[in-house]
Amino acid sequence: MGNILPMVTGGLFYPASTNQPIFTADGLLEVSPAVLLKEYITVITLLQTPSGSAVWPCYIGSMPDGVHIEDDCACVYDTSGMMDGRLQDNGLVIQHYGVQLKIRSKDYQDGWAKIDLIAGSLDAVSKYDISVSGDDYRIHNVSRTTPIVPLGTEEGMKRRWLFTANFLVTISQIV
After folding, report:
1. DSSP letters along 145-174, please?
2. What pTM does this model have?
3. What is the pLDDT of residues 81-102, one digit of tens each?
4. What's the chain's Rg over C-alpha atoms?
5. Which residues span the domain enclosing 123?
């Protein structure tokens, strides 16, 4: 069939070739979706990588506690996702990975504002390319599956407030 633009213009206009990324055929990721989403959130500077100067450090898989750990912090967890059909041309199964964001804050309003800001930013993600450990990935979409859920205060003596929000993330590795 060919490209319609050169056919209509008699070859006068021909679109420049574009280097489109090639996605893995097996659909497998070499990095956890939680790691990729944490990397995205730190790249857009809503949270920081844990260090001595981090105001809102973000962790993966567990929220540490201790003398030198900030009261205000975040954690990203891998959770159950959803399988969503199969592409007919190559048999690739579309998988939406489950990710949970948890915020811990000494002040209720600060915790609410932080998770609301991050969740709103994730709602707007569309085809964002990111590199982690030398590999390239595309975050196609982030869909919030729950509203912000206030969990009350954590157990123990510090009485910090906890909030969560859950997401489905569509990600492909670019090769």
Report:
1. -S--EEEEEPSSSS--EEEEEEEEEEEEEE
2. 0.80
3. 988 777 777 777 788 999 999 9
4. 20
5. 19-174
SS3 content of the chain, % helix, strand, coil (to 5): 20, 40, 40
| Cβ-contact 167, 145 below 8 angstroms | yes
Query: What confidence tens digit (pLDDT) does each residue in 143-169 have?
Result: 999 999 999 999 877 889 999 999 999
Report the first-to-last Cα separation within the chain, whole angstroms.
Answer: 28
HSE-CB at 149 with a 13 A cutoff on CA atoms is 11
**Do 79 and 98 contact (CB within 8 A), yes or no?**
yes
Could you tell me the CATH number of the domain that includes residue 129?
Answer: 3.30.2000.10
Does 12 map to a domain?
no
CA distance 86 to 73: 38
Number of domains making up the chain:
1
| Secondary structure E strands in 10-160 | 58-60, 73-86, 93-105, 126-132, 135-144, 149-153
